[in-house]
Design brief:
Chain A has strands at 4-7, 10-13, 19-25, 31-37, 43-50, 53-57, 64-70, 73-78, 87-94, 102-103, 107-111. Chain A is mainly beta. Chain A is globular. The relative contact order of chain A is 0.33. Chain B is mostly beta strands. In chain B, 0% of the residues lie in helices and 54% in strands. Chain B is built from no helices and eleven strands. In chain B, strands 2, 4, 5, 9, 10 and 11 form a six-stranded mixed beta sheet that branches. Chain B is globular and about 40 Å long. Classes of the chains: A mainly beta (112), B mainly beta (113). Chain A binds chain B through residues 30-31, 33, 40-45, 48, 50, 55-56, 90, 94-106, and chain B through 32, 34, 36, 38, 42-46, 49, 51, 87, 89, 91, 95-103, 105-106.
């Protein structure tokens, strides 16, 4: 009964490939996010969706495209992967007001 | 946009002593301040949070204080234990929801036996 689950946990791929990371939450939350944690452990928001609608799109290359088929799912598709995309990507969800985000277990993406 | 500064980047304390981590934020409209603990290889986990209409909040050995005028907030851990060793992140947001969280750069807390 994991609250926020994302797959895969590890992803190793070559430069130039296209890959997707899936995320699902069973908390009934309205808002879902993607965060990127770099090698220095810095956590930065990439996207925010509220009820399937894109709310935040930080300065992220347009090779990254989120898709929310319904309120419980937010997937991340990455085109033409680059070495600098290597990081841990966390999916998270929250209610809209005054509640901290609950994070998935993370996907460690390594681009070789 | 919001900017959150966190200090220190590394903190080493003796087991049983107290630890204090401090954060400042730039956007006076921010009104929700959570703290996360991240153990090695694990996800960030919410440990305590505070809203801007409250000055202090406690939960057993951890407490958070907020000074809205000075735009800073702090995490206090008393009677530290080995399992408190982790990276701690402060964060700020407006409303805690769709705006997302702006994180500090993290504090690596080391509890010395």
């Amino acid at each position: 009964d994991t609250a926020v689950s994302q797959t895969p946990k590890y992803l190793v791929t070559q430069m130039g490939n296209d890959k997707s990371i899936k995320c699902e939450q069973n908390l009934g939350h309205d808002t879902m996010y993607w965060y990127k944690q770099d090698s220095k452990k810095f956590l930065k928001i990439m996207f925010s969706y509220n009820n399937k609608e894109l709310i935040i799109n930080e300065t992220v290359p347009n090779r990254f495209s989120p898709k929310s088929p319904d309120k419980a799912h937010l997937n991340l598709h990455i085109n033409s992967l680059e070495l600098g995309d290597s990081a841990v990507y966390f999916c998270a969800s929250s209610q809209t007001l005054f509640q901290g985000a609950f994070f998935g277990q993370g996907t460690r993406l390594t681009v070789v | 946009g919001e900017n959150v500064e966190q200090h220190p980047s590394t903190l080493s304390v003796q087991e049983g002593d107290s630890a204090v981590i401090k954060c400042t934020y730039s956007d006076s409209a921010s009104n929700y301040f959570p703290w996360y603990k991240q153990e090695l290889g694990k996800r960030p986990q919410l440990i305590i949070d505070i809203r801007s209409n409250v000055g202090e909040k406690k939960d057993q050995r951890i407490a958070v204080t907020l000074n809205k005028t000075a735009k800073h907030f702090s995490l206090h851990i008393t009677e530290t234990q080995p399992e408190d060793s982790a990276v701690y992140f402060c964060a700020a947001s407006k409303g805690g929801g769709a705006d997302g969280l702006t994180f500090g750069k993290g504090t690596h807390l080391i509890i010395q036996p």
